[in-house]
Design a protein that fits this description.
Blueprint lengths: L1 E3 H11 L4 E4 L6 H7 L5 E4 L3 H15 L3 E5 L3 H16 L3 E7 L22 H4 L6 E4 L6 H13 L6 E6 H4 L2 E3 L22 H10 L3 E5 L1 H5 L3 H11 L3 E3 L14 E4 L7 H8 L3 E5 L20 E6 L13 E4 L2 H9 L6 H16 L9 H7 L1 H13 L5 E4 L3 H6 L7 E4 L9 H9 L7 E6 H7 L3 H7 L3 E7 L4 H10 L14 H8 L2 E4 L3 H10 L6 E7 L13
Parallel strand pairs: 2-3, 2-4, 4-5, 5-7, 6-7, 9-10, 9-12, 10-11, 12-13, 13-14, 15-16, 15-17, 17-18, 18-20, 19-20
Antiparallel strand pairs: 1-8
Helix pairs in contact: 1-2, 3-4, 3-17, 10-12, 15-22
């Protein structure tokens, strides 16, 4: 049967399991929007296309499914770039559909032309470094092959974003709907197929180790291996540190949790690994700048190192492991847990060594630690209260990262999503909104600074328009905190373009028709968690902070 290309693309979204498309209509995508009107795929009108890409990323991150965004040609597409770049860094399966001027306008200077002809911007080239696959569809005779390639990029073992740019006239052409018979959605890679793993060799290394430690990363969450990591840790007496993205793989605040490993953390995990460990086991964790303390050689010096990852490109990328296992983390751990039970005395010795190391730490990590604790007492109290009030089913999107890394104990039943892709300001609000279109139960929090808020704060109205419950936690210090910190520490307090004036956030919340809470005391924080509706309402929660109070870690010089 003959259908329009627009109709075919909408059916393709359905075949991918896409339930919602985030975007903004423009003249060059109206044929697609017209077909979306009568389809089961829901559309969400955003306030800026960057928000659409961030929302799609948030949806993909929570659901693990393909998410989609749509924008018109030219500025609509260029506004998607930051969000698509973030999806690329996070390996999220985000399909971006953009319009284009009619092909018979190419090279003539058509309005918003992005074909790359005649001096126009080249939309495909612009996205070439931040997508797994991208295509300007100028004809219909190869449309089946294009959709097949797009499917493979979105649903393959290492997914990532895809851009399909469709000229206006091509959207209105007719094709046979059998084109969809070829690009059927591919199943996710079978975890068992990734385990030609030398698990026996790993078991032997653990058995010989006196003080092994696990560094659990986001790969553990992606593999659904939280329970396996916790069981292995308890069974073998192995403490667990996490990367920032892996925060919550094991419940923090428990006996075998070392918290986060990273330059902006409190340093507990770093000290244990450097001072006590003899075997470090990386499970689905990269060794990036933050986690590695700028690749500090003391972390791995004199230790045996094991790396387990489903991405072969990560194995040995930054350090040379003594044992590298290319496999799905969950499948590897299941096999490891099936090995004979360890000697109880060895487990007790490991637990005793961990307890002794902790008991030997009587002084604060740094001279300024006490001063910092006083300066951040409201933020610390807020995060502690959040962990107590919502021990499970909370979605926490965090742009600030540093405070939560130190003050928020994430349980194994909560979901913490730090802005660790390309670390774009303003990410938390739209990402949390996108996630909410998949996960409607439990509370959702978007934590960010006032500078980031002013980048994507308009998307709060998107939450209002669609009745999406959300708590926006705004740290108000009237400055770009990281910039001010760096200019204080590295540039002799020569401040420039870091301070600014904020609006009255109480009045701003009122204009949105949402609740505002000013947390200027611990009593106000206690009242918020005792009395406010944090699960079904939209709230703007403001925490004041002195602009000269900032974490004392030293950024790279």
């Amino acid at each position: 049967m003959q259908v329009s290309v627009s109709e075919l693309l909408v059916r393709y979204l359905g075949r991918l399991g896409v339930e919602v498309v985030f975007g903004m209509p423009g003249a060059h995508v109206l044929p697609i929007y017209d077909r979306l009107r009568d389809s089961p795929v829901r559309t969400v009108l955003v306030k800026h296309e960057q928000g659409a890409a961030f929302m799609a990323g948030g949806y993909a991150r929570v659901s693990g499914r393909v998410a989609a965004c749509i924008a018109t040609a030219g500025p609509g597409a260029t506004n998607l770039v930051t969000g698509i770049a973030n999806a690329h860094a996070e390996r999220q399966p985000v399909l971006a559909i953009t319009g284009e001027t009619p092909t018979y306008f190419f090279g003539k200077g058509g309005l918003q032309e992005s074909s790359g002809e005649g001096g126009a911007i080249d939309q495909i080239l612009l996205f070439s470094g931040i997508t797994r696959y991208r295509k300007l569809i100028e004809r219909t005779d190869y449309l089946g092959q294009v959709l097949n390639q797009a499917t493979r990029a979105l649903l393959g073992p290492e997914p990532g974003p895809v851009l399909l740019s469709v000229p206006y006239n091509v959207q209105k052409e007719s094709v046979d709907d059998c084109v969809l018979d070829d690009p059927l959605p591919l199943p996710r890679i079978d975890a068992d197929a990734l385990v030609p793993a030398p698990v026996a060799a790993l078991a032997a290394l653990i058995e010989r180790a006196e003080a092994p430690v696990i560094v659990a990363g986001y790969g553990c969450i992606q593999a659904g291996a939280r329970e396996q990591v916790a069981r292995l840790s308890e069974r073998l007496g192995i403490p667990v540190a996490t990367s920032l993205k892996g925060k919550g793989v094991v419940a923090e605040g428990t006996a075998l949790s070392l918290g986060c490993l990273g330059v902006t953390s409190n340093g507990d995990a770093y000290r244990y690994i450097v001072e006590a460990a003899d075997l470090v086991i990386f499970l689905g964790a990269g060794f990036n700048e933050r986690t590695s303390y700028l690749w500090d050689p003391r972390l791995l010096a004199g230790k045996r190192v094991v790396q387990v990852d489903r991405d072969s490109a990560r194995l040995g990328r930054v350090f040379r492991p003594d044992l590298a296992i290319h496999g799905d983390v969950r499948a590897v751990l299941d096999e490891l847990l099936a090995t004979p039970a360890p000697d109880a005395a060895a487990v007790d010795a490991r637990l005793g060594r961990l307890a002794g190391h902790r008991a030997g730490r009587t002084a604060p990590a740094a001279p300024e630690a006490d001063a910092d604790a006083d300066a951040f007492h409201l933020i610390r109290h807020f995060h502690a209260s959040l962990a107590r009030r919502f021990p499970r089913d909370a979605l926490i999107f965090d742009d600030n990262i540093v405070f939560a890394q130190n003050y928020l104990d994430v349980s194994h039943a909560n979901h913490y999503f730090p802005n660790s892709g390309i670390s774009s300001l303003g990410h938390a609000i739209p990402a949390a909104i996108g996630a909410r279109f998949h996960a409607r139960g439990g509370p959702a929090f978007a934590i960010l600074g006032d500078g980031g808020f002013q980048m994507c704060g308009m998307e709060l109205m998107t939450a209002v328009n669609y009745g999406i419950p959300l708590n926006v936690v705004l740290i108000n210090n009237g400055t770009m905190g990281l910039i001010r910190k760096n200019q204080f520490q590295l540039y002799g307090e020569r401040y420039l373009d870091c301070d600014f004036v904020n609006p009255d956030f109480r009045l701003l919340a009122a204009s949105f028709g949402i609740q505002h809470y000013l947390l200027d005391s611990e009593a106000a924080i206690d009242a918020l968690f005792a009395e406010a509706d944090l699960e079904n309402a939209i709230n703007l929660i403001e925490i004041p902070l002195d602009k000269d109070a900032f974490p004392r870690y030293l950024s790279a010089r």
